[in-house]
Amino acid sequence: MYSEETQSLSDVTYMMKESLDGATAGIKKVFLLQSLIISPSRTQHFTSVSLYLSCEDQSDSTGWRVRRNTDRWGLEDCSSSVWGSQTGSTCTIRSTMIWDTGVYWCESESGEKNHPVNITVHFDVILESPVHPVTEGDTLTLHCLYQHTTPPNLRADFYKDESLIQSQTTEMIISTVSKSHEGFYYCKHPERGESPKSWISVTVFHSESQISVLHILSSVLAVSPYLLVTVVLIFRCCRMRERLENWVGMSGMALNWFRSYLEEVIMIVQWVKGEEDVLGKDNDLPSEER
User: What are phi and psi of 188, to 5 degrees?
Assistant: First the structure.
């Protein structure tokens, strides 16, 4: 008796499920992608020290490997080379050399790659900067380190894109990072020398993929109240039809006429809801007068 209404409800349910599944997949892709973890956590490192790189996330790190591309050795895997040794998803460089400077990343068995990281190995003076992009609004702290002193913090001048931004300080702090703070940073000491340059990037809180996910979720939530009203009206219409046919004995043309009347009522209710959205909630006129 209710095959058409049941089919419509099934179609709507399927569409909502597809939208939610798509949103969930987007969230997983944004938040669960493998990331390269570096210890010590910085992009510049001294020579003749140990360096640890691993592929980790909150779900599973099985099947991921550390790869790199250097000017001297080209493309290499940690597990199949002499420069490092890999245990599980962790790669260890026992004694760094300047030739270890290059691009490093995590790669899965299927070829999926995460965001690459530029690692620089240098002697004497290095800049301590974050490995991954800084989120807009966060605090950025930079240190100038010297290899032959303990502690290694060095009082130096800090530069961005060749312009001096702070002088004779052991650390440089930007309390609220914005997109304008992106650029090449380095530190310089008049006697010890200067560090290599490191690119610091800033990401906006809502990335493109996050906006897409939030848009899907907001669309589903926005249509839910009207979808619920429609489903309830259809259900009541079907119940009314059953009562008229079985209890009152209405059938034939009279039943079809009454069914058409109820369908028009549903359309009017949906139209009124749409008009309320256009006119706004501040309009106090009753719906019958619109």
Answer: -145, 135
Give tens-digit pLDDT for 118-131.
999 999 999 999 99
Q: Cα(65)–Cα(67) distance, rounded to whole angstroms? A: 6
DSSP 246: I
Q: Is the distance from CB of 66 to CB of 83 less than 8 angstroms?
A: no
SS3 state of residue 101 = coil
Instruction: Pick the closest to residue 168 from 155, 180, 159 (CA basis).
Output: 155
Structure-block tokens of residue 34 = 């493998």
- 175, two tokens: 């309390």
Q: How far apart are CA 27 and CA 43, in angstroms?
A: 28
For residue 32, name the pLDDT band (cuts at 50, 70, 90).
very low
Determine phi and psi for 60, rounding to 5 degrees. -155, 135
Please tell me the pTM assigned to this model.
0.61
Omega of the bond leading into 196 within 30 degrees of 0 (cis) = no
Residue 150: CB atoms within 10 A of its CB come to: 6
